[in-house]
Amino acid sequence: MFISIKWKAVIFLSLVLFLITLAWVTQSIYQNIDNYRVGIEQNQNRHQKILDQLITDNYIKLSQYSQLIVDNPQIKSKSVTEISKSVNQYLQDQWFAWNLNIGIDYVAILNVNKEFIAEAHQFENQASLESLHDSLRLFVSQVTRKPQNFIFCRESCQQLVMEPFVFENGSLGVIILGQNMTDVITRYQAVSSSDIAVIIDAQEKVSAKNGHYIEEWNAYIWAMTNFDEMFPILKQYSTQNDIHSIQAVSLWNAWNNNYSVQKMIPSSYKQVGSAAYFLNIANELKRQELLKLEIMSEVSTSLVGWFVAEIFLIFVMLGPIKRLLIIAKALELLPKHQYKAASELVKSSQGYIRDELTQLEDSTLYLSNELDSLHNEVEISKQELNSKIKMLTRSKAFLQRLFDNANLYILTQSYKFKTTSHNNLFANDLLKNQHTNFLDLFISSFDRESFEDGVESLKNGLVESFQQEVNMHTKQGEDRTLAWTHTLVKDDSGNDQILSIGMDITQRKKDEIALHWLANNDSLTKIGNRRAFNKELDTVLSREKSGAVIFIDVNRFKQINDIYGHLSGDKVLVDIAEQLKKHTRENDSISRLAGDEFTIILPGVSADHLPNVLANLSDKLSRTIKLDDERKVEYSVSLGGALFPEHGTDEQTLIVHSDMAMYKAKKKGLKNWHIFDYKDDQLSDLKAEHKLTEYLKKALQKDLFLLVYQPILTIKNHHVSHYEVLLRLKTENGEWISPEVFIPVAERVGLIRDIDFWVIRNVFTYLQAVLKEQPNLKFSVNVSAPSLQEQLFSRNFIQLMEEYSISSKNLIVELTETAYIDNFVQVLKNLEDLDGIGVSIALDDFGVGYSSFSYLKKLPLTYVKLDGSYIQNINNIPQNQAFIQSVVIMAKAFGMQTIAEFVEDKEILDELVSLQVDFAQGYYIGKPEVELLTQKQLLDLKKTA
User: Cα-flanking dihedrals φ and ψ of residue 117, to 5°?
Assistant: First the structure.
């Protein structure tokens, strides 16, 4: 492990400074602690002196009181023989005044024979009084020599003074005064600022004495200052210490409560009666806090000093060590051939005063210059050698990198078409053996000849490269379409080689063919779609002088779907297409416009011949087909015909007139046909439309519309992604009016915009109510082409979002792909405005009309809804599968997601999974309902899916 000498020196000297600082701090701490202990002891001595002084002062006061009392003639003038009664009476009379005025609690007069002549007191306990008498008699003989002063404790503590005096008759007497020591205790607290407790041994073990009993010591507290706070402390102390073994010196911090306890013994006074203990209790918290502050100050000062010393040390050592480090770094650069950098480093660190480091710098500088000179000579020789090596390997390295990293067919070949090099992809798919000639891979002789002509043009310098799309055989016997680019390159020897780069476009070609077919044909019925019909009609009108257009609609087709299912409905549509193929001429053009609507273009048909054609088709298209489950489905059609040029000379007019004729045929009943006639009475149609218009206005005013919600399933995780909002309308008689009926009328009479915004407002109202419980709920709202073509549509839509506090993440705007749009620029602007704030855009019925593919490129779409006609029978129609797969690939390429409609069973859903469709919608997922799916229904849906 490498450690710089700079850090070694700094660490070593820092450690020395730290140890010195640590020793100094430790000594200071011990000194502070010792000073703290000395202070405690001095404070305890002071407490002892205060107690002694207070007792002495009290003794002097009592001695003075005794002299004043015995000087009274009532006592001193009496003789011993007559003193007993009169003096005793006098003491009894005066005792109360003395007790009240000067605090005298006990007074007695004895003779030298230890006989009590007179006595006054407040003792109630006879045993205590007798114990006091016994103690007083012990001191009578000593009083004659000097006054006596002692402390008597039994139930309380009193200070007693015995003074001798002489009666007038010359006989000797002794006066005794006693005073309760309560005043001494009170004055002690005032003088010492500490608390004191007087504890008296109990004569016998008792449970308590006025709540002051200490069981561990068999004693009770006679007096204590600050009792409420100090008594619990003393009780705790008694559990750890025996009062009889407490030393006179202080017990410093005897337990963890910052208090010290000191037993004080009056030094010049005797104690009689029961044993009593004077305990001083002092709070040492402030003293301890001061000690901590002093210690912390010492430590902080030491650390600051150590830090300053470290900075000074580093500053002093920085210069020499920096020079030494530069030399070491310069020596490290020498093995790396960085000689000039090493020289610059050493030059930058040289000082004015020479020393050993200067000599080392000179040596390093000299060595760097010498090595630099030698290195330059070696580099010149090396460069010359490398230049020759690169010239030899450049061509080979280029080709090798190109071959190995390209996901293309890459090969080089001679002018005789012999392969000289190739990549792995070419070898695995096309190269049959090492002697394979490139020309042998061509299927078409025309492609082979075109390749040979292109090579001749390359050789002659006429072109730099050429491309061709050809079909080739693979090693596995497959035919593939490859797009080749051919050009010339140089080989290692400088000779020309043909570089051929190919890309497999087989699938793209298949997709183009499939898309072209799907663009002009209906995938279900395999006949032409609307685009093919429009194209063919335009051709016939420009080429033929006469003819007819037949419009066919399946009667009650919705009921067939509802009763037998959409798969059965698909079989009906397929059967109709087959019958049309059988019973039309070869030059007639049949198409499926959308849903259950078919058209036939009949070139050259006259007005006389058309009725026979319509009658024959009406008969042939009234059939019964058998389903796989042996059920039978009957269907019939209504046909309307229009002649050109009699009934119109343009596409739109002919479609409208044939459609009107078909509508007239439906009114006649099932299995009917009708040829357009300008004399037809349209009044009933107008009345019906007028009545429906008035009801639509009423529905807008009174909110008679109904919104239902159909769930859309995320196929990948089987969760409901969002709901499509669908509009329903019921008449006053309770009959439902299909949207296919009232929406076209609303568009024609200009009510569709009001209906659109009625739907939007009610969707926003519902969203506002449920978003608190379901914040991720998302609704898809259908908007018509007329609304989208309004200039202020996006602004009004966004204002409603703000008014109802609806987030863009909760909304999808869905437009029908087949809707008539004559102002695409305005529609695009409105959709871009909504997309700009985060509203998703969905395109409905994709695949029905010819404009679908242009919409994918132009509109800001998030979702593409695949028309249900491609979904209903997808398991049985490979072309539908190919179409769906192609649309999914294109949608993903544009960053869009796909939604499949009319998902009626699990087999269809499973097929959509394999085709990587993103979402599914249909009766198998959920029918349109007034209420959203419950949590249980969501779980059941997930299990079913």
Answer: -85, -45
| Radius of gyration of the chain measured on its C-alpha atoms | 61
Q: What is the pLDDT of residue 249?
A: 43
CB 472 within 8 A of CB 437: no
How many CA atoms lie less than 13 Å away from 574 in the CB half-sphere?
18
Q: What is the pLDDT of residue 444?
A: 85
What's the CA gap between 635 and 627, in Å, rounded? 13
Helix (H) / strand (E) containing 116:
strand 116-121
* Angstrom distance (rounded) from CA 4 to CA 6: 5
Taking the C-alpha atoms of residue 178 and residue 66, their distance in angstroms, rounded to an integer, is: 10
Write down the pLDDT at residue 848: 67
Count of C-beta atoms within a 10 Å radius of residue 145: 8
Contact predicate 592/527, CB 8 Å: yes
- The residues, any chain, with a CB within 8 Å of residue 46's CB and separated by 6 or more, are 192
Q: How many CA atoms lie within 13 A of 175 on its CB side?
A: 23
Average pLDDT over residues 885-899: 91
Torsions phi, psi of 57, nearest 5?
-60, -40
Pull the structure tokens for residue 353: 């005063």
* Token pair in block for residue 644: 């050109």
How many residues are listed for the chain in this entry? 945
720 - beta bridge partners?
713
Per the CB < 8 A criterion, the answer to whether 549 and 537 are in contact is: yes
Q: Is 289 exposed, middle or buried (0-12, 13-18, 19+ CB in 10 A)?
A: exposed
The whole-angstrom separation of Cα 572 and Cα 631 is 13
Within a 10 A sphere around the Cβ of 886, how many other Cβ atoms? 17
Distances (CA, A) of 438 to 411, 416, 418, 472, 699: 10, 9, 7, 10, 76
Q: What tokens does 770 get?
A: 């449920």
Contact 423, 412 (CB under 8 A): no
- Rounded Cα distance between 288 and 295, Å, is 11
Q: Are 229 and 254 in contact (CB under 8 A)?
A: no
- Within 10 angstroms of residue 666's Cβ, the number of other Cβ atoms is 17
Res 11: pLDDT: 77
Residue 757 near residue 703 (C-beta atoms within 8 A): no
Read off the amino acid at residue 110. L
Helix (H, G, I), strand (E, B) or coil at 669: coil
Helix 739-749 to helix 752-770 angle, to the nearest 10 degrees?
120
Query: pTM, whole model, 2 decimals?
Result: 0.36
Q: Which segments of 202-269 are extended strands (E)?
A: 213-214, 219-224, 259-264
DSSP 8-state class, residue 833: H
Give backbone dihedrals phi and psi of 324, rounded to 5 degrees, phi first. -65, -40
